[in-house]
Design a protein that fits this description.
Layout lengths: L1 H15 L4 E3 L6 E5 L3 H11 L8 E3 L3 H5 L6 H10 L4 E6 L8 H4 L4 E5 L4 H9 L4 E2 L14 H8 L19 E4 L5 E4 L5 H7 L29 E2 L10 E4 L10 E3 L6 H17 L5 E3 L7 H13 L1
Parallel strand pairs: 3-5, 4-7, 9-12, 10-11, 10-12
Antiparallel strand pairs: 1-2, 2-6, 3-6, 4-5, 7-8
Helix pairs in contact: 1-6, 9-10
The structure holds threonylcarbamoyladenylate and magnesium ion.
The site of threonylcarbamoyladenylate has 27 residues, from strand 4 and strand 5.
């Protein structure tokens, strides 16, 4: 605990100095900087090699902080009450007098925000006088990091500090819901589509826009381990790493279980960790068994399809 406090103090020092640092969240680790500072947020884009037009998610500790920067409506409060703090991001209308850096929003009138549910990052946010802009802490298009070591593999000594909060409990990014006009899911993630559809009873099916990409960073190629991935495979090739979600009678050292019990939540949590491990073990290709397209399976398939492009 004492150690945590001294690490949080270190984090504050770097952030106040307009530096970027790694922070833990329940979804994935973020590359964080003062969202009110042009200088600090510019560094995020440079470090990640991220196109300037791809806006960032801003992380808050409390509703009172959030109110300073954007407009909140009934739909927002319904979702907030059910899921926050937690793995959900909202796209909201930005207030004209908000101090959010133009780098964060790509000069648009909307902003993506969330309340991360991680003890260390929540205390860090509480101490700060500004919210934190934080995309996932990976180089653009690569696999998101779910531990301090993963962030270190991405940036090495290019960043000065990573707040160690253990392994991310959810393991995939937040679900992004746009509340501009009718609520829409822009990115599947750590909250199942079903749970969100229950909140908006009148809306039977939220449209998940696949063809017209609304979220700039939701390009077709993303989350890539840099090796070919084949999906829905019953029989892998000899030299392939084989990703599975339920136990087989015979296992080989090429088998990587996301779950042994066909548990899709557990599988989502292990997805990025497993892709990284396979890459480190120098496999030249990956085969994945069919994953049911329900609940968290939908999020896993979304990521695997992008990773396989
Ligand atoms: O779980 C998460 O959301 C993680 C952790 C670190 O919080 N963050 C994350 O950020 O996944 P990033 O930058 O890797 O993905 C954010 C996505 C991008 O695809 C971006 O285009 C989209 O959010 N986005 C940001 N602002 C937006 C806006 N105003 N309207 C629509 N999409 C937006
Ligand atoms: Mg990302």
């Amino acid at each position: 605990m004492k150690n945590n406090l001294s690490n949080i103090k270190k984090a504050i020092k770097y952030l106040n100095n307009n530096e970027c640092i790694g922070i833990p969240t329940e979804t994935v680790y973020g590359l964080a900087a003062n969202a009110y500072s042009d200088k600090a947020t510019q560094k995020i884009f440079t470090l990640k090699k991220r196109p300037k037009k791809n806006p960032l998610i801003v992380h808050y500790h409390s509703l009172n902080d959030l109110k300073k920067d954007c407009f909140l409506d009934l739909n927002f409060f319904k979702l907030y009450k059910s899921f926050c703090p937690g793995p959900i991001s909202f796209v909201l209308k930005l207030k004209c007098n908000s101090r959010i850096s133009k780098n964060v929003t790509n000069k648009k009138e909307t902003i993506a925000v969330r309340f991360p549910n991680h003890r260390l990052t929540r205390s860090l946010l509480k101490f700060l006088k500004y919210p934190l802009a934080a995309p996932s802490a990976n180089l653009s298009k690569q696999i998101s990091p779910v531990s301090k070591n993963d962030v270190n593999d991405e940036f090495g000594n290019k960043i000065k500090f990573i707040l160690d909060g253990g392994q991310s409990k959810i393991g995939v990014e937040s679900t992004i819901v746009s509340l501009i006009g009718k609520p829409r899911i822009l990115r599947l993630g750590g909250i199942e589509r079903n749970s969100i559809e229950k909140i908006f009873r009148k809306i039977k099916k939220l449209k998940h826009i696949k063809k017209n990409i609304v979220v700039p960073g939701q390009g077709k190629v993303h989350y890539s381990p840099g090796i070919p991935i084949r999906l829905n495979i019953k029989k892998p090739k000899k030299q392939e790493a084989y990703i599975l979600i339920k136990k087989r009678k015979f296992s080989t050292k090429n088998f990587y279980y996301l779950s042994k019990k066909n548990n899709l939540k557990e599988a989502a949590k292990n997805l990025y960790k497993t892709l990284r491990k396979i890459k480190k073990n120098k496999f030249k290709s990956i085969a994945v068994e069919k994953i049911p397209n329900t609940g968290f399976g939908e999020t896993i398939n979304d990521r695997l399809i992008r990773a396989s492009k």
